[in-house]
Amino acid sequence: MISHTVGFYSVKILAIFIISVMYFVTGSIFSLLLDQAIPNVDPKSLSSVVLMLETGVIFGIIGVIYYLNRMMLKYMPFFLDGFFGFRHILLHDMASGMIIGYILYAYQDKLIEMLKELRIRYQRIEQTIRNLF
């Protein structure tokens, strides 16, 4: 009984490790491809409405990539399925995808520049509103 429990958790830990590495690799690839697909435009030259729309579209694309990547990895066959009763599709760590979420945002240099510009504009608006009262 103890050997079965130790075996089960050993397989589970190995699965979490492998899935985390796969999330990192696939997230990096998708994120770099998305960053290359975003046109090189100076965020300062865009109006606030266009800037907000572009960042919204990018966040939407990131959300779709995040979802598709999680589903792809969740239903991918796992070579240790069945060992000690382990079923990889039931692994709760598959649903979180915290690593891919971070990687998808962290590699977006153009998106980060757009968000910095939006923050500057929001701070100006906030200061103007405070000066009114």
SSE arrangement:
Layout: H1 2-37, H2 48-74, H3 93-96, H4 98-106, H5 109-132
Helix pairs in contact: 1-2, 1-4, 2-4, 2-5
Transmembrane segments: 13-34, 46-69, 89-107
Keywords: Membrane, Transmembrane, Transmembrane helix
Describe the protein's architecture and organization:
Keywords: Membrane, Transmembrane, Transmembrane helix. The chain crosses the membrane at residues 13-34, 46-69, 89-107. The protein is an all-alpha fold. The protein has one domain (1-132). The protein is built from 5 helices and no strands. Helix 2 crosses helix 5. The radius of gyration is 21 Å and the shape is elongated.
Any descriptors?
133 residues; membrane; transmembrane; transmembrane helix
In short:
The protein is mainly α.
Total helices: the number is: 5
Mean pLDDT: 84
Q: Unreliable runs, pLDDT <50, ≥5 residues?
A: none
What proportion of the residues form beta strands (DSSP E)? under 5%
Biggest β-sheet description:
none
Structural class comes to mainly alpha
Q: Mind telling me the C-alpha Rg?
A: 21 Å
Helical fraction: over 70%
How far from one another are the termini?
71 Å
Kindly give the count of domains. 1
Number of strands: 0
Shape: elongated
Helix-strand pattern:
HHHHH
